[in-house]
Amino acid sequence: MAARLRAAIAAAGGWLSFDRFMAMALYEPGLGYYARDSRQFGTLPSSGSDFVTAPELSPLFGRALAVQLAQALQATGTHEVWEFGAGSGALAGQLIDALPADVAYRIVDLSATLRERQAARLARFGDRVRWVDALPERIEGVVVGNEVLDAMPVQLLHFDGQAWLERGVTLCGEGWAWADRPTALRPPGDPAMPPGTVTEIHLQAEAFVRTLAARLVRGAAFFIDYGFPEREYYHPQRHGGTLMAHRGHRADTDVLADVGRKDITAHVNFSAIALAGQDAGLHVLGYASQARFLVNCGLPAMLAAADARTRAAAQPLMLEHEMGELFKVLGFAAGTPFDAIGFASGDRSHTL
């Protein structure tokens, strides 16, 4: 990985934009974090994993989400679910178990290593599951992405008190270091930020949503991730940005260290994602905290019927200091909008 990065920096004239650095760190074939033969997802460090996702914590997450997907399938008259970035395959298994038997499942994942693990985990479903290497011209179905937007490369901006600069990576001895250069890029709304601010913009995630909108001719899409609306994302008190790394269930901010051996991620600017989808022709169905969304989808009744261990494992999905508040759900519709059950109460679309 170090040799590939040095070559890329040299080929770029000695300065590599951070989004390109992040893309290599995560997805470089055979070497990037998601392309290596290592375990990323798990509940405890002892498993060799680096972080936990909601479907790894509890199968009730997928069961509750399936309530929303089933309603969306019926409302849009479609029969396919498309999952982007399926990770370990845990969510796919939970959703397929809970959805009607005539629903086909399609997975789009950049990592060949993860696709192999997903195939092994989902083999029991036979040809109901299919992996897709390229998006078709037309998609009719319901799209789901759990913690996929945060893994899309971001560009870094630094405000020096006079101007915004783009932050990239340059060679420094046998390693690399930060280096800034002039840019016309600005955070959305060009907010007033204190000198020394470093923050992110999400051009690749926005482009992904626009591409999806162009292909999704009928259906809906639901994205679950950690993040904020724009006014909170670019608040002066968040002058250090949200970029972080994960390894061994510990978070740190040194994303230039151990490249390829730990996750790199940034929180999602949900306002930018909503606007990208809306400008591309999608309808915003709603925006809510994960806790409120899961309540609307019937998680409390599922918890009441579960045993004590299952209830305890599912608590972080709802608790404010765990996933319940930090994680949000954003819904879109292609075609005629409908009243999505997940946003029946607690919809925060007005804050976007």
Enumerate how many helices there are, as a single number: 13
Q: State the end-to-end CA separation.
A: 39 Å
Strand content: 25-35%
Residues in helix, %: 25-40%
Can you tell me the residue ranges where pLDDT is under 50 for at least 5 consecutive residues?
A: none
The rough form would be described as globular
Reading the helices and strands in chain order gives HEHHHEHEHEEEEEEHEHEEEEHEHHHHE
Largest sheet: 8 strands, mixed
Radius of gyration: 20 Å
The average pLDDT value, as a whole number, equals 93
What structural class results from the helix and strand content?
Answer: alpha/beta
The total count of strands amounts to 16
Characterise this structure.
It is a single chain. With about 350 residues, this protein is of the alpha/beta class. It contains 13 helices and 16 strands. Strands 2, 3, 4, 5, 10, 14, 15 and 16 form an 8-stranded mixed beta sheet that branches. Strands 1, 6, 7, 8 and 9 form a 5-stranded antiparallel beta sheet that branches. The chain is globular and about 55 Å long. The mean pLDDT is about 95.
